[in-house]
Each structure stands twice: as C-alpha cells, then as structure tokens.
Amino acid sequence: MGEPAPLAPVEAGSPSDDVGLDPAVVEAVDAALAAGDHGAARRTALELHYSELADLFEALPHERRIELVDLLRPTFPAAVFAELDENVRDDVAERLGTEDLARTIANLDTDDALYLIDGLGETRRGQVFNAIPRAIRAQLEEQLAFPPESAGRLMQRDVVAVPAHWDVGRCIDHLRESGDLPDDFYDLFVVDSRHRPVGWVPLDRFVRAKRPVKIAAILDSDLEAIPVDMDQEAVARLFKDRDLTSAPVVDAGGRLIGTITIDDVVDVIEEQAEEDMMRLSGVVGSDVHSSVLETARLRSVWLLLNLCTAFLAASVIDLFSAAIDRVVALAVLMPICASLGGNAGTQALTVAVRAIATGTLSTANAARIVLKEGIVGGLNGFAFAIVTGTAAWLWFHDPRIGLCIALAMTANLVVAGVAGVTIPVVLNRVGVDPAVSSSVILTAMTDTLGFFMFLGLATLIIL
After folding, report:
1. Does residue 162 sit in helix, strand or coil?
2. Element holding 263 (H helix, E strand)
3. Number of domains the chain is built from
4. Are 91 and 117 in contact (CB under 8 A)?
5. Which of 242, 261, 280 finishes a domain?
6. 0.90 exceeded by the pTM?
7. Domain with 243 in it: what CATH number?
8. Closest Cα partner for 152 from 160, 162, 140, 161?
C-alpha cells in the first residue's frame, strides 16, 4: 500500500475565502505523524508557505511539533522563525541542534536572526555564535549591543547604497555584480564620501531612467534618516506619518549602517496593538502557548490586585450596611450604577491608551480630551439616568429611589469618562505603562465611587 499523497495546496478563490492555514492540513499532518507516515507529513509541511508552516507548528501539540522539527531538520526553512510565537519559537530552537540552529540563523536577515537569538539562554547563545561564520557573528553581536526594541534591533544590515556621482548604468552594473544584495529592497540610498545618506532614489524612478543619467539628477534629498537608538514605536509612527516603504538607519556619526522596511514596521504595529490589548486585560504577552503554571502565575498577580480593590469597594458598602438593612432595594440596585460606570470608563480608557501608544494623545491636548469625555459621560449619564430612575421608581413604587439611582448614575458616568482619560495620561507622564495599570485603578474608582454616591444619596434622601 503506497504512501498517501500530500494535501493539495489551497487554491485562490473568492475574496471571502479565509486567509491562513486550512485546519484540514493540521488534522492531516497530525494524523500522519500519529500513524508514523513521516513521508506524507514531511511533504505536506514543505509544500506550505513559511507563514503557514509557522501556523502549523503553533497548532500542533508539543509532541507532534517536536516530531515535525526532527523530520524537517535537514532542510528546515529559516524564514519560519520570523513568524513563530516566541514560546513556540523557543521550543523549536531548543529541539534543533547547535549546528542546525547556527545554519538557520546564518540564512536569516539580521533582524529576524536577532529575534531568534534573543530567546536563547547565555550558554546556548555562546554555542550557537561559535558555529556561525565570523562575519555574520560580528554583525549580530554589534546589533545585540543596541537597546531592545530600538531601530538598531529592527534594521537589516544589507542595504543598497550608491554615490551621487555615479550614473544609472554604473549602478545597474554594480547591482548585477554584487553578491550581497538584500532579498527585498524598495529604494537606493545615496551617500557621500563619508557614507552618510544625502538622498534616496525610489526603485521605480531608478528603473525608468536612462543609463547615462546621473544619480544626482534623480535623487530625492528629502530623506528621513532614523537614529539607531530610536524606539521602534517611534519608527512605526514615522513610517505611518510619512507613508514610507523603507528608511535608512544611521549611527551617532550619521553614517549609514542599515535599513528598515515596511514589513518590519507592520510586525511592530501588530505586536504593539496585541500587547496593548493583552495588558488592558491584565495579561502580559500572548500566553496561548505558555505552560499552565506560567500562565496561572502571570495572571494571578493582577487577580490579586483586583481582589484588593474589590475589598475596598466592599468596605464602602459596609459603611452603609444600616441603610441597606432598612431599604432592601438599595442592595438590588447598587450594582447597576457601578457596572455602567465601569463599562463607560473602559470605553474611554481603551481609546486613551491606544491614542497614547500612537502619539495622538499627550499632555499637550489631554485637557481637551478630558473635557470631551466628561461631557460625553454626562450626556450618556443623563439619558440612562432617566431610563433607570423611571424603572426603579416603577419597580419599587418610590420616586426617591429612582432619584437616587439617577443622580448617582449621572455623576458616576462623568467621573468614569474623566478618569478613563486622566489615569493613563498621568501614568504615562510618571513613566508607568498605562496599558498595564490603568484598568485596575479605573475599576476600583468606578466601583468605589459608584457605591458611595448611590448609597450616600440614599442615606441623605430616603433615610
């Protein structure tokens, strides 16, 4: 009985077709590995695009993942590492031997190679470095000296640079004869005698020019050179604001040392958006592939902090225990005020944290945004106060209870809107990541104030 044929690649279809790895491929490879049909599993895996192969590694259970690494070891596609979740990346790198891992790193662009090396321990890193060719090792060690999440870590070292006095024909001949061109490039950077960038030539303009035309005649001198120590989020904002596809990276002396391309910036934007989303929920990083104990440990820190804030809200309720004993309706209605305030605050908080991350909210325009969110909270609070107050009045046949919940809800939504912007701005100002801490503080504030205002008003008005 012959080996089953590997799955056929997914053909392009209508625009509504799903993008990504077909779940049937995962099931087929998993089944083939379980049945010991290594030939079919290997052929199917190697027919995938490297991004789909990365999805396959992430979808397989640990034992099957390790088995597939062993099958692909002789021809392991280096580009897969750039697409892997960091926990799976470390898992795969650990399984590869030192020689295989060193060969893989040597075949990667320097920015992707650094992403892989960052996950290695000191001992393993030293072993792998010793197996990498000297020239590549020197480049990687130099880039590792740059700050994490800086342009120096993000850049590729291979760059196309030509002097201004060359003509187009000489540049074409140089590019054809060069053995170290980057795999993908979009611009030619023009440098002076000290290798400092003075302009750039878009690739489309370059290929349209006649051979005798001087580079100086077609270059664009409006150049955005990126300092090697610039934060990668600032790099991403620069690409977005200037609609760049690539940009040169310069050292402290202004000399061209690398380039950053749009594909690297897209990764930064995606990672930052995911990081902000996770941190707003009290999760540090993507823990889908983390161990059970590690995931539980990381989440327990924020759950403990939430428990402390819950006790704070409970202590406020305890202050008005006598009022609750006399008017049972208060116990029924008080979660409504706190819950709505928390939701309204989270809406403002999410917008504010993202605006801070993209640079559109700072202390310069914070007052205007705070005022806006306060007015929005007041308008929503007034509208929902009428509905909730009327419902409470009809429910408990007491207009005073309706008045209390209406006033408390209006005030809490105003506070929630203002706090949703103010808290992340203040935290960012003092150097604390607002995505990590804001939600806990906001929840404590809206819950505590919501209970206090509602029960306090009830004590004054009803009792």
Report:
1. strand
2. helix 262-280
3. 3
4. no
5. 261
6. no
7. 3.10.580.10
8. 140
In a domain, 103, yes or no: yes
Q: What is the pLDDT of residue 388?
A: 92
Within 10 Å of residue 191's Cβ, how many Cβ atoms? Answer: 18
Residue 166 shares a structural domain with residue 254: yes
Distance CA 24, CA 84 (A): 20
How much is the pLDDT for 9? Answer: 44
- Sequence-separated contacts (24+) of 249-254 with Cβ below 8 Å: 249/151, 249/152, 249/155, 249/225, 250/196, 250/197, 250/225, 250/226, 252/227, 252/228, 253/196, 254/194, 254/196, 254/225
Q: E strand or H helix at 316, and its extent?
A: helix 292-319
Looking at residue 18, its pLDDT comes to 53
Please give the share of the chain, as a percent, with pLDDT higher than 70: 91
Whether residues 308 and 448 fall in one domain: yes
**Pair 166, 145 in one domain:** no
Residues 6+ apart with CB under 8 A from 312: 444, 447, 448
Residue 181 lies in a domain: yes
pLDDT of 16 reads: 39
- Give the per-residue pLDDT at 291: 65
Nearest partner of 329 among 403, 242, 419, judged by Cα: 403
Residue 268 falls inside a structural domain:
no
Give the pLDDT score at 104.
85
**Residue-level length of the chain:** 463
Q: Which residues of the chain have pLDDT under 50?
A: 1-17
Q: Which pLDDT score is estimated for 13?
A: 39
Pairing of β 187-191 and β 161-163: parallel
Rounded distance, CA 409 to CA 450, Å?
7
Q: Which residues pair with 202 in a beta bridge?
A: 187
**Tokens 């270059």 correspond to what residue?**
219
Query: Is-contact 79 105, C-beta < 8 A?
Result: no
Residue numbers of the domain that contains 333: 292-461
**Residue ranges with strand state E in 171-301:** 187-191, 197-202, 226-227, 246-250, 256-261
Whether residues 326 and 441 share a domain: the answer is yes
- For residue 9, the Cα-to-chain-centroid distance in whole angstroms is 30
